[in-house]
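INFO worker-7 received task bundle
INFO bundle size: 2
INFO processing item 0
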Amino acid sequence: MTSHLRRVVVLLVLAAVGLLSGCGGSGSDSGADRPPPSQQFVSRPDLRPVPVSVRTPAHGTAPGFVFVAPKKDVDQAGPLILDDRGQVVWFDPLETHGVTDFRAQTYRGKPVLTWWQGQSDKGIGNGHYVILDDHYRQIATVRAGNGLHGDIHEFLITPENTALITVYNEIPYDLTPWGGPKHGAVNEGVVQEIDIATGRVLFEWHSGDHVDPSESYEPLPKDESPSGVCIDRNSTQLMYLPDRCFRSVYADPRAVEMLLVPLHDHDVAVGAVWLASHSPKRRFDREDERLLRNLAQYASAGWQLRKMHDEIADTTRRKDRLLAVLGHELRNPLAAIAASTAVLKQHVHEPRGSHAVEVIARQARLVERLAGDLLDRSRLLSGKLRLEVVPVNLWKVVADAVDTCRPKIEQRRIEVSIGLPQMPAVVDGDPLRLGQLFSNLIDNAAKFTPEGGRVTIGGSLDDEHATVSIHDTGVGIPRDQIQRVFEPYAQLTNPRDMSPASGLGLGLSLVRSLAELHHGIVTVASDGAGAGSCFTVRLPIQASHTPSSLAHAS
């Protein structure tokens, strides 16, 4: 038997039951105003729509018909038509779907019934829309397009025989400005106009393209929230059936009791920790309050730590912004100083004057490097540092970096030994930035190695990586500071030299960032103060230039 025929049988049986009820009555009008006490379905005992009592007939609607879409706490969900006494006229049970927005509309000039059906979670639907003709036959199904899912709240048929629907689309969003997670999400509203006949999306509008979350975020007024009341009164609150006064805590199943304890920031109530009981058999007592107070103390400590973290992060952002501006503003005067120094070198031949010019040039180069570090740090933070990636022989980059640092190495009479494999290590990288990476490490080794010390540079290859190690006999790194060497602005203390450390403390931070941009890593090892240190850089090599592939090709 088809669904349509089953409905016809049910309607005929209902009509018969109605006739029998009318004939068996005494003729008195006293029972006419009473809703039917129960509903029976002779041919379909499995039909169990929710009983409805209509106490006040609606005005301005078609006489005798009420449209209902029960979906919670009922035996069966589905679109339901009742007469003005609550008696079933038509019902379509849907065991596995919820139904909302059941109403009459017009499609192609004729009356139709429409509803949404599907699953919903926290008020957001995932379903589609159904259209029935005036014989209760399904003539169309409308679904959201472009990979989205129709929501429960709106389905409107237009005079052009298209459908306007609403969709909630979850998109990733940084919610830290409103106290949420950095990798959070928002539900943006989407409106689609769909051609009912073809299912084609004719128009689509996204609220996320036009409305910033800051415009739609509105904190709940304190007096409309149990937590707000707890904060204002700064005391424990025990509430019975709280949804009677606070719509924001409506839930299914219903909260029977709610226990709230304030949490504090330096004795000022800033929030609340709460528990809800959904069973009349579970009521809160003094022990529950004690446990909740302990939790509130932990929450208060976490709140204050988070606040301190945010303040430190804000200070760091301001500092980085200031230093980035400083690095940028130094470039023009440094260029003028360098140009003027070059002119002076050509005209000053007296020994003392030549020495002074050389000092100016050397210090200008130092300041230029510091300004460059500041700008690179700023580019890294903003994601604007771009690599010009080409195949490059890593051993040549290391050798060139040694030549760049040669003046300082010779000035400090440091012995440098280099042991690199003859087989080339071809990596995909930016030669300029890789040169900067190794120049920083070699310069650092020379800087912290006493005169007459030794720096050893070695390399190795395996089937996936090239490894470069830079070992020095310098001052070493105290064990309690080795985890800080790659932090920005870190200035490690030198136990043999109590003078203030030179530089900004950005060199090793840039080294780590540049290594990671090349999909590599950099590590450091030291046996402590006075024991020297060893920095190791590990970078992926091209698959066609691994030792195994080259040996196979030969």
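INFO item 0 finished
INFO processing item 1
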Amino acid sequence: MSPAVREDDRAQAEKHSDNTTDRAQSAMGSGDVLPLPTTRVTGAPRPPQFQSQVLALASARRRRIADLPSQPTDIGSRTLPPAPLESLPRPIRQYVEEAAEAYSSSPELILPMVLGVLAGSLGARREIVLKPQWREPSVLWLAVVAQPGERKSPVMSEVKAPLRAWNRRARAEFKRAMVGWKARRLQARQSKEAFEEERPTLPRISVDDTTIEALAPLLRDNTGGLVLLTDELTSFIGGMNQYKGGQGSDRSRYLSLWSSTDMTIDRVSLGGEPIVVEHPCVSVMGGIQPDMLGTFRRPDGRNDGMVDRWLMVVPPRRVSVFETDSMDPRTLAEYADIVNGLLGLQQQVAEDGFTKEPVPLGLTPDGRKAFASAHDAHMARLASNSVPPGMEGGWSKLPGYAGRLALTLHMVRYIINDAKSETVDAVSVEMGWQLVRWFAEHMSVARGMVSQTDEDRAVNAMVAWLQRHDGTATMHQIVTNGAAGIKDNSDCLAVMGALQARGLVAETIERPATGGRTVRRYQLLADMSGTADAADHAA
């Protein structure tokens, strides 16, 4: 049992979440998710004094989070910006802050997971129309770049709790639907009547790991879209084409899936009948270790655009401390209500009278003006060649991501009665662009890691270790502490030789006045702010 949430707290939150959907009617066999009331939800009832305490509690919580001991990530001396919590709707900001405190984690690790769940829950129910020829779906692909032991798994388990509750209700409804279907089929057989009723299908909202062939029928049967949540993205990325000797088309199909491009799968194993999915929406969220970021590249080293499609975050390494505080069950319930509210939004029926498609949402006049201003400033930087090297492709996709984030957060605001209509306003647009600017800073570092060699990673790890030890150390100290994975003197000479070749350290030979063995000492050169970053992005 996680220390973050007591059993009674979780039971209370999940009971409240279940109560919000008691009025739902079964949609088995129709391809719908479980329908929910389309009215807005406002979360669990709160005592009158609660709202007056929110700001004070939030301020105190931010101070406690800031006081948690942390270690810099091994990215040289660069300081990455904190999560822009002020750009989030109040219930989401509160959830991220409480989860960070309860799990002794960082908001930077938790926020991408929450955004992935929210975007995936909205899925193909809505899309944003930035201009007549430019529409963006509610699809986010997010990667948290962190070492093992950063508590990604327990945090992700907490964040996707509302999806697990939804799946439980879906399975229960499916079992009841199957009982009724089998009874009607048996009755038809006994009376020798034709029985043409389709077999019920089990609604899904989340998947852990899947192939493109398995994903296609799931998307066909769940037109609202899916969320793929995985602890390790390495298996998801590396698994593309793994059953075809690396010669399949899975990777290219996933590239198209990011854009919500219509999908057609022709497979002999499926009886020869193609599976056609219109407006497929799959949001992906997972963690990946820095050493495995090279998985995003093709095996031949070329960039096919896969890495450009990911929003990456490099959270600070938080030193774990024992936390006795639980997350407020009201906060958990309000978060669950928002997720359920997004899942309960209905799609519209296309002109053919059969196909379901997203409801298009435009921008308010102020929203359009805000988006145009931010977009032009963003693209002007790209044109001025001031974008970090190798980031051009990813940078060009960030305006689309700003629209996707604005869409997701606006619908959250609409559900909690913070937006007057579903038309996306300037407040939501600014939220989306603030998040995009934050992601861009983290992506510039993560993208440097993608192209790093083993030597680059060893150099960066050693620079970070030396910086934490006053910038100087002897060979004996380096080997004894296993700095940067160094195991013996020969490893040390190789790594420190690479640092010397890059002009990052100076070596001195100290000869004791009383005789004895000489001592090799290494000293970081002055003003490492530029050189360390350069090492980070070395190809």
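INFO item 1 finished
INFO post-check item 1: The chain has a mean pLDDT of 81.
INFO post-check item 1: The CA atoms of residues 228 and 284 lie 5 Å apart.
INFO worker-7 idle
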